Amino acid sequence: MSGNFDCCRRILVIGNRVRRFLDSSFVRLGLTGPQGAILHFVYVRGKYQDVFQRDIEAAFDIRRSSVTSVIHGLEQSGFIRRESVEDDGRLKKLTLTDKAVKISKRIAELLAETNKMLIKNLGEQDVDYLDRMLAKIEGNIP
């Protein structure tokens, strides 16, 4: 292994570039990149089960306070509602408003375009290998 390989820095740089790219793509919809990704998650998951804040925390591996902040912004912008659950009044499921549902197709397109861009010079075997390597790297982090 090369002593000059700085995995941490490369991952941080790629993450920053992807975040900036998504932010610039979603700005036309009145969203940030993370807001768009979370709306997409709620839209897809919400088709077959209730979605709660803890689901977003787990799926994106982000802290409760960060998710709370994003959800609050989405509520303020009229994209999402928190609704009480019959079994537990303290528990709030996340529901998309009509405004969010109307742009959900464009959100999905933007995320698909971004994924395509990220792997455009990779063959199918490369993509499979990258997926396995990223899973291993993710598993190395406590």
The appropriate CATH architecture is Orthogonal Bundle
Low-confidence stretches: none
**What's the pLDDT, averaged over the residues?**
92
The biggest sheet, with number of strands, parallel, antiparallel or mixed sense and barrel status, is: 2 strands, antiparallel
Shape: globular
Going across the biggest sheet, name each strand in turn. 1-2
What structural category do the secondary elements indicate?
mainly alpha
Strand content: 5-15%
The number of domains is 1
Helicity range: 55-70%
First-last Cα distance = 22 Å
CATH top level? Answer: Mainly Alpha
CATH superfamily: Winged helix-like DNA-binding domain superfamily/Winged helix DNA-binding domain
List the helices and strands and how they pair.
Elements: H1 7-26, H2 33-45, H3 53-60, H4 64-76, E1 80-84, E2 92-96, H5 98-119, H6 124-140
Antiparallel strand pairs: 1-2
Helix pairs in contact: 1-5, 2-5, 3-4
